[in-house]
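Input record, target 12 of the design panel.
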């Protein structure tokens, strides 16, 4: 009998501890998420265009449904060409345009080749900061600035990484059905995302950099959509906030300072790059609802071919 009581007491204490930790987890995530915005400019964007594109034309995108900003490394020449031939093929999709966002490479030869590539395709935008992974936030700020200056009349802006395949036919149809084209932020929403302190993590964050246990809500960086009216607002806000090295989290911080409508469409993503091709093969014309596929390089064209053929 005593053993049974002891066992029940142990179970009760264990459950109480687990529940306390569980509630503490969500309590810590819902409160004290740090946003150090200022009432004065503390992060001026002091960089200048070294390569620019007028791909949206003199009317600044008035007839465009979508302008896509592809964050990509300068040396990824083949990947840019692959994107031009697949989901960003403007001969197939007249209502979209794409620009590739790059910083300065450390190798002058690569930059010389970039200049030639830009002259041929007129779709590369570059500013004079060094292109590194942790300058991805700068690259996105550059993209916001560029759209607000050179393509503000396009209805929507897609920020995307170079390893994501877009189901362009379905995305166009989806955007055309939306009744709202302003004050809009859409993607794969992350809520209560825990800050990683592991020194080995690509996304590690020290307490000096960010103290709370969790981030503000944000859409995953590889692919999210803004109504284009938001680009100028967010670019302006970025100058009143300290630069944050995780680009998608930084965007969430800026969005939290606006009255943007935040839409969750995680169900429209293939999020696991290792299995995207496997699941893409299971799509059919009646079940073709995915808009984005995070993918491995060797699967990129195959996934695109599936998306495109389903639209025919």
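The sequence produced for target 12 reads:
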């Amino acid at each position: 009998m005593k053993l049974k009581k002891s066992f029940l007491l142990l179970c009760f204490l264990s459950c109480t501890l687990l529940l306390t930790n569980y509630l503490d987890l969500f309590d810590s995530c819902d409160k004290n998420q740090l946003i150090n915005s200022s009432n004065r400019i503390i992060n001026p964007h002091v960089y200048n265009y070294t390569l620019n594109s007028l791909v949206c034309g003199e009317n600044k995108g008035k007839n465009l449904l979508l302008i896509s900003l592809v964050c990509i490394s300068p040396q990824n020449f083949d990947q840019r060409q692959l994107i031009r031939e697949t989901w960003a093929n403007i001969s197939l999709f007249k209502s979209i345009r794409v620009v590739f966002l790059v910083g300065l490479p450390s190798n002058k030869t690569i930059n010389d080749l970039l200049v030639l590539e830009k002259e041929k395709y007129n779709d590369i935008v570059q500013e004079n900061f060094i292109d590194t992974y942790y300058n991805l936030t700068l690259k996105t700020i550059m993209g916001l600035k560029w759209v607000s200056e050179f393509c503000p009349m396009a209805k929507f802006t897609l920020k995307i990484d170079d390893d994501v395949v877009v189901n362009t036919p379905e995305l166009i149809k989806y955007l055309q059905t939306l009744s709202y084209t302003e004050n809009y932020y859409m993607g794969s929403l992350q809520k209560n995302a825990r800050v990683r302190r592991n020194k080995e993590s690509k996304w590690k964050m020290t307490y000096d950099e960010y103290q709370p246990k969790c981030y503000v809500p944000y859409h995953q960086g590889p692919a999210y959509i803004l109504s284009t009216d938001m680009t100028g607002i967010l670019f302006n806000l970025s100058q009143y906030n300290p630069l944050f090295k995780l680009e998608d989290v930084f965007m969430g911080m800026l969005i939290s300072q606006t009255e943007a409508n935040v839409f969750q469409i995680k169900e429209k993503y293939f999020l696991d790059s290792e299995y995207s091709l496997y699941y893409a093969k299971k799509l059919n014309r009646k079940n073709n609802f995915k808009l984005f596929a995070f993918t491995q390089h060797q699967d990129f064209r195959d996934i695109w071919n599936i998306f495109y053929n389903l639209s025919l």
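The first strand starts at residue 49 and ends at 51.
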